[in-house]
Amino acid sequence: MGILDSPDYFGSTIFCDDIRNEIGGKATYVGVYKATLYVHVGFPVDLPKLGIAIDYFQRRNRFVRPVKFLIFLPEDREDAASIEIGVPEPEIEKAIDRAERLAQTSATATDAANIFVHIGLPFVFTPFRLKEQGRIRVRATRGDDLVRLGGLFVQAAPPKS
Predict the structure, then answer these.
(1) pLDDT tens-digit profile of 109-151?
(2) Domain containing 20: what range?
């Protein structure tokens, strides 16, 4: 069985009820949603909290700016996100510097070529309003391209049987 090369960019998103930062750079995700968030009251609904933890990676030697995170709510058009979060340039520079330092200590050129710039940002929205059911979609910009980082389907809870 062969091993596939990593893509030049990728990422993921964890959706949860709360995010708690711990000592030593760790985080606790409370009430993690797998694929669906069930709403037990009618729409629109205000969730007391919604945590969205985004991790985004770009290969260090192919890094493309700008980096911005977009969160599309179920009612959003494909070209108009409700939430746009620009990553400040100093944060991007720190992430690039970390990757460069790691590459300099790599044992081989292959290891150095496989170092990624990591930008990870946790957000806790209080409250979080959902007007209708559908999919919450998270994207990152890479230049003029959108990179899919995950989604969460929101729907009314099924009736109890």
Answers:
(1) 777 778 999 999 999 999 999 999 999 999 999 988 999 999 9
(2) 9-86+119-156
- Domain-located, residue 106: no
Q: What tens digit of pLDDT does each residue of 17-58 get?
A: 999 999 998 999 999 999 999 999 989 999 999 999 999 999
Distance CA 147, CA 53 (A): 16
DSSP string, 71-108: EE-TT--TT--SEEEEPPHHHHHHHHHHHHHHHHT-SS
Q: Which residues have C-beta within 8 Å of that of residue 150, sequence separation ≥ 6?
A: 11, 12, 13, 15, 137, 138
pTM score of the predicted model: 0.90
